[in-house]
Target: Protein phosphatase 2 phosphatase activator
Amino acid sequence: MAEGERQTPSDSSEDAPPTTQNFIIPKKEIHTVPDMGKWKRSQAYADYIGFILTLNEGVKGKKLSFEYKVSEEAENLVATVVPTHLAAAVPEVAVYLKESVGNSTRIDYGTGHEAAFAAFLCCLCKIGVLRVDDQIAIVFKVFNRYLEVMRKLQKTYRMEPAGSQGVWGLDDFQFLPFIWGSSQLIDHPYLEPRHFVDEKAVNENHKDYMFLECILFITEMKTGPFAEHSNQLWNISAVPSWSKVNQGLIRMYKAECLEKFPVIQHFKFGSLLPIHPVTSSC
Model:
């Protein structure tokens, strides 16, 4: 992301919603291509991308084995899913979780489903179940476990990639772990972007870095020269620094996922991620 594009992540995810908030079942609002303007101006877009960038900063330069503290609320989440006093939010938040594991009819999965899981985590932050100081745990513990589950499903059911761009896309299924994974590697003492196409480097370091874990999974699932089946990633390996890779991937995520009608037409909006225009107070 160029300096001029850099955004300050919204602080709204730190505060629980007022107890009088009326939660609603999220629904689709983007029905035609012109509706994309509503999405780009929406509070939902501002909160979602702010959440993604906050986590991006949180994991910068850290391994997956990094020692982090998890707030009491996050522990409660693991034990009880959502505390009793937030029960009214469950139907709204649950919609995003249900949308995050792929389509049961088409048996497909893609970045739109991945975005639904990120939206689920964002909503948990907005109701106060997770906090911003849980950001490392959100990526390393919760999202990374989600990746493990989805990879198992992809292998078991041979899920079709939803909306894949084939060789010209970044990856058939995921995008966010490449963003957060490249942030992890910023200022690494010896691993450079050129090393992720080196089988030895990937095998020795994949357990510490999400980006390399993604590369390992791709090489397990695809055959043939890496430059042919993953041309976009091959080109990225020529970028001189991880910070430039990270900035470029954020731009690419906005352009290829968040600004594409085929992806966003399935996104759902409620009281926590509303379609109304972003307010200046947030």
